Amino acid sequence: MAPQQTTIEVYHLENDFLKMEVLNYGAIIKRLRLKINHGADQDLVVGLKSPEDYLNDAWFLGACLGPFASRIQEDKILETSQATEASHDKAPHILLHGGDQSYAKQFWTMENIQSGPAASICLSYTQIVGTKHEALENKKTPLNAKSETDVYLKSHESTTIKTFVTYSLVNSELRITYHSTSSIPQVFNLSNHSYFTLDNATDISEYELCIKAHSYLETNTSLLPTGKLIPTPGSTYDFRKPIQIGHTTLDTPFVLEKKNHGKEKGASVDSQKSESVEKVASVYSQKSTIFLEVFTDQEVIVCFTPKEFPGICFETQGFPDAPNHPNFKTIRIDKNNPYTQETHYKFSLKTNPFNA
């Protein structure tokens, strides 16, 4: 096995509309800028000044989230001898964005990079899950495994989950695609944690937000889903028609209205079939006239607006904490069922786009 990378590298992408900087640490989107006339480019994501600053970042700025994005009770995912108390978020047995094993805190390998009108970069990360010896010694078995031999074919054989993430600049769109394979059954859920900002204001209260969601997930005081779906109509989180965010604070998983809602891609119990990417959310700044549209093949979008700085996350993913709720679809991957996801973020300059 090649030695672990410990030096942060910065990769640059650019086309006629967008400029982008990507780190090999956490597959982080460090910077994304929209080119505007006369060189007055606008930053589109929140970022830190130095690449090394991300080593101590607690906000998962721009990072790839995995192996399970959002929150999940730890005893419902594959545990290894590497798990520690430091993995816990707020309450015992809850992991946030993968805990200590989070893909956001790992060094990735740059597989290829392309320049030109269709600029792109592909990075990969291989998670070493464990061995049969470790699992038996710690009495830990993967979710839904009928026996140890269902999961581990040979004693002491390491098992792996390999993930590829590709960032592509297509005209004024940032496209993110994921592809993961696993040699063992594993619950899985990936996302990106960029905080989008469309102007230079000190808050986002005047942003107009629209989310195509018929319901959202109730969460407890630890922000873990309770299993209850609450209809959005008439609620604080009713953004089916564009309205200003105002003083509403979001850390909310929305269940999306989609033409192919209920099919298997991205939220399947046993398999994943191709679906089209659909528009699910949009946000607009009148100050900059920048309009962001979000397209995805996922069934859930977690919108997060921190109080500490201006920005909004659109975390496209499967259901958080899905294995603990029979009414939530759970994404599981194994050697016969890889994971795929595709999400697009499209930027444009428009005047009153919601009235068009």
Description:
There is one protein chain. With 356 residues, the protein is an all-beta fold. The chain has one domain (10-355): Beta-galactosidase, Chain A, domain 5 (Distorted Sandwich). The chain is 3% helix and 38% strand. The protein has two helices and 25 strands. It has helices at residues 132-137, 148-151; strands spanning 10-14, 18-23, 29-34, 42-43, 64-65, 71-73, 94-96, 109-114, 120-130, 159-170, 173-182, 186-187, 191-192, 195-196, 208-211, 213-219, 225-231, 243-244, 251-256, 278-285, 290-296, 300-304, 312-317, 332-333, 339-349. Strands 8-9-10-11-25-21-20-15-18 form a nine-stranded antiparallel sheet. A six-stranded antiparallel sheet has the order 14-23-22-19-16-17, with no helix packed on it. A hairpin with a 7-residue loop joins strand 22 and strand 23 (312-317). The longest helix has 6 residues, at 132-137. It is globular, with a radius of gyration of 20 Å. The termini are far apart. The model is unreliable at 78-92, 132-156 and 262-274 (pLDDT under 50).
